[in-house]
Amino acid sequence: MGAYILRRLLLVIPTLIGIMIINFALVQFLPGGPVEQAIAEIQGQGDVFGGFAGAEDDGGLGTDEVEGYVGARGLPPEFIAELEQQFGLDKPPLERFLNMLWNYARFDFGESYFRKTEVVDLVLDKMPVSITLGVWTLLISYLISIPLGIRKAMRDGTPFDTWTSGIIIAAYAIPAFLFAIMLLVLFAGGSYYQIFPLRGLTSDGWEDFTLIGKVLDYLWHIILPITALSIGSFATLTLLTKNSFLDEIKKHYVMTARAKGLSERKVLYGHVFRNAMLIVIAGFPGVFIGVFFTGSLLIETIFSLDGLGRLFFEAAIGRDYPVMFATLYLTTLIGLVVAILGDLMYVFIDPRIDFEKRAG
């Protein structure tokens, strides 16, 4: 098993580099950039997209400067060159990419272009929100979906199976952001009730609360965003668990176990559970990354929660490349490591699985 883990860890390197190459190359072809963003802010246009209207008047600049930075009319070329040097864009793309990889390999992510803060500090500052949304959503989803899927498999075709399928499919069809807005309107001071807070993870003066008060306040704040984020996550996992158990229940070893007089509970959890859960665990890395980093963007925005998803989105819009690429690097690295942990979970649940023999 050690050799297999080592091979997987070594494969992380080319995979990570490949993903960074693709995204770095795509960024080179996108309109705008940090210099355009800085120019737009200087000229009061607010963002990088304000300078794409046209270039009828060059404002005294040469043709090359106008073609390179449409919004730079009236700014001296020396100032533009100074901006390029400040952002490191005066170097060739290949040199910039290799320097970025070398720094990232040492977990040196530099400083944000526009926030004047270390990228690591920004990520660590936003991490509690993403951890809260991700961990609670996964925990609730798995604690509800797996027992429900097993119950549906045991009562396949009954009215219980029918109406629970209808409920979870209806919940899956509701967009999370739309459900979040509905929760705000109903329970957060919209048109009906003011039961839950509108924003944030804690109340003002949270540091002065007692331990029980801090826990209750924290739970009070996360109920609505976690409910909105979890509402659509039950369907896939529940039906996957149900179908996996149904496939295993129909196999000969289950009939043999029953013929030996084993109780239904022992058959289900002593024999079927181990095999049926393999396919559920296989999808864990994707679910983890989706909920932990990308799936919470709209929820973070609606509930005014400042997490990693919102940080990456704002960095992409603002062309804050150090933050954007550092977040991409970290999420990709974590995703690849979690995928390896998923394989280890296979072996933990079913020791008969040997990846080294399969590789050989």
From TrEMBL:
<feature type="transmembrane region" description="Helical">
    <location>
        <begin position="323"/>
        <end position="349"/>
    </location>
</feature>
<keyword id="KW-0813">Transport</keyword>
<feature type="transmembrane region" description="Helical">
    <location>
        <begin position="276"/>
        <end position="303"/>
    </location>
</feature>
<keyword id="KW-0812">Transmembrane</keyword>
<feature type="transmembrane region" description="Helical">
    <location>
        <begin position="218"/>
        <end position="241"/>
    </location>
</feature>
<feature type="transmembrane region" description="Helical">
    <location>
        <begin position="162"/>
        <end position="188"/>
    </location>
</feature>
<protein>
    <submittedName>
        <fullName>Microcin C ABC transporter permease YejB</fullName>
    </submittedName>
</protein>
<dbReference type="InterPro" id="IPR000515">
    <property type="entry name" value="MetI-like"/>
</dbReference>
<feature type="transmembrane region" description="Helical">
    <location>
        <begin position="129"/>
        <end position="150"/>
    </location>
</feature>
<feature type="transmembrane region" description="Helical">
    <location>
        <begin position="9"/>
        <end position="30"/>
    </location>
</feature>
<keyword id="KW-1003">Cell membrane</keyword>
<feature type="domain" description="ABC transmembrane type-1">
    <location>
        <begin position="127"/>
        <end position="342"/>
    </location>
</feature>
<keyword id="KW-1133">Transmembrane helix</keyword>
<comment type="similarity">
    <text>Belongs to the binding-protein-dependent transport system permease family.</text>
</comment>
<dbReference type="InterPro" id="IPR035906">
    <property type="entry name" value="MetI-like_sf"/>
</dbReference>
<keyword id="KW-0472">Membrane</keyword>
<dbReference type="Pfam" id="PF00528">
    <property type="entry name" value="BPD_transp_1"/>
</dbReference>
